[in-house]
Amino acid sequence: TFLAKGSATLDKLKDICNKGKEHPSTLLQLYTQAVLDITYFEENQLVDEDFPEESSLQKVQELSCILSEPEDLVRECNINDKPINILGAELLECLYWRKGALLYMYCHTAKERTEWLQENIAIFKKCLNDGVHYLMKMLSFRCPLQLNEDVSLQDKDTARLLSEG
């Protein structure tokens, strides 16, 4: 299972840290893989439970924060390199894909809860915007978007999303 896989990765990370010989990028990559494995298990629980109305928003926010930790850690370690050069495109794509997909799945479920939606439309819109942002960012790691004259922008939000890539 993914929890066992995540736990094994954390054990490997602990062993490497105790030896003290590994490059920080390897440690950060192993940590990122453990985060992806463990959060995958938790995301599946949310999906299996159909995103329980009373607790799922908080859990989605927690998972999103956890999935942001590896990139934040790269910045906090004062490594004078971009996260993509430390973690690699594949891991960064996975982190952003998972954040975007999680918000998409949550919004897909939440839109069916009419009363909740009416009371929380601002939260719903923020989740949608954040999800789109994460997915667009995921796509930009290997294929940065280059706009040309043929691109017709219908509104400023679309223009912003495209320009931020």
TrEMBL record:
GO biological process terms held by the UniProt record: mitophagy
Stored InterPro entries: RIMC1 (IPR037657)
Short name of any one Pfam family annotated for the protein: RIMC1
Protein's name according to its UniProt entry: CE051 protein
Organism field: Atlantisia rogersi (Inaccessible Island rail)
